[in-house]
Amino acid sequence: MSVTEPGTGLVFVELSHPWGHGTPINPGDPDIRIERAVYHAAHGVLSQRITAVMHNSTHLNAPLHMVQGGADLASLPIDLFFGNGVVLSIPKGRWEYVTAADLDAATPTVEAGDIVLVVTGWHRKYSDSQEYFGQGPGLSKDAAQWLIDRGVKLVGIDTAYVDHPLATSLGLHRGGPLMKRLPKFYETETGRDVKAGFPEWIPAHRMLLKAGIPTIENVGGDVAEVLGKRCTIQAYPWRFGAGDACVIRLMAMLDPSGAYRIESGRAA
């Protein structure tokens, strides 16, 4: 549920999935390990040790993730992660594409410099399941190009992957299939040939990152509260030198009164 800050009247909306024990993990990745390095009963204090791949739950990808020599998390301009944006409702079923035509028809209108969150409805299926990871929709190449051409600064989607899952290593790409039954299941269910239908590995995601546009996967939380709205979005990652990705706390902010102003920075 949204929360209103009493001093300013700003409304905050959670757009992140929870993170921790039991977080759904990409097929092929090791599970998150959280261990108590010290704990209250023995030491009077709690400190935890974490081992994890950063590509789980709601996370942000820097260009370095897929572009050799691309910008890492720490070197990205910090203004990329805060600003005006749109939450686009583009409902899609299993194995469908979000296309340029879908983006063009969606409201509110996307403007240059926007943060764009694409909501297919798949966030409602978020779970440790073959359906969520293996049967979700994804961005088409023409959708990625449309976003690049509009000059957006950050793109998020409420699926496990920016691309169609059969265009990832879950299918027949880069040492796959990591989800072994998926290619045959897809062909049986659709009558389509996987190799012919998905000749390129993660094309839409690579296009966005090569254009210097960071991406967010697994958008979720209470995103339904801001569907079809223009709002202020914050998506700050860690200041992680040589980091390709990290889990983030993604939030939307609304100002119903239109009266909020931040502090000037002047000394009292």
From TrEMBL:
Signal sequence segment: none
InterPro entries linked: KFase/CYL (IPR007325), KFase_sf (IPR037175)
One Pfam family in the UniProt entry: Cyclase
Gene Ontology MF terms in the entry: arylformamidase activity
GO biological process: L-tryptophan catabolic process to kynurenine
PANTHER family: CYCLASE-LIKE PROTEIN 2, KYNURENINE FORMAMIDASE
Record's protein name: Cyclase
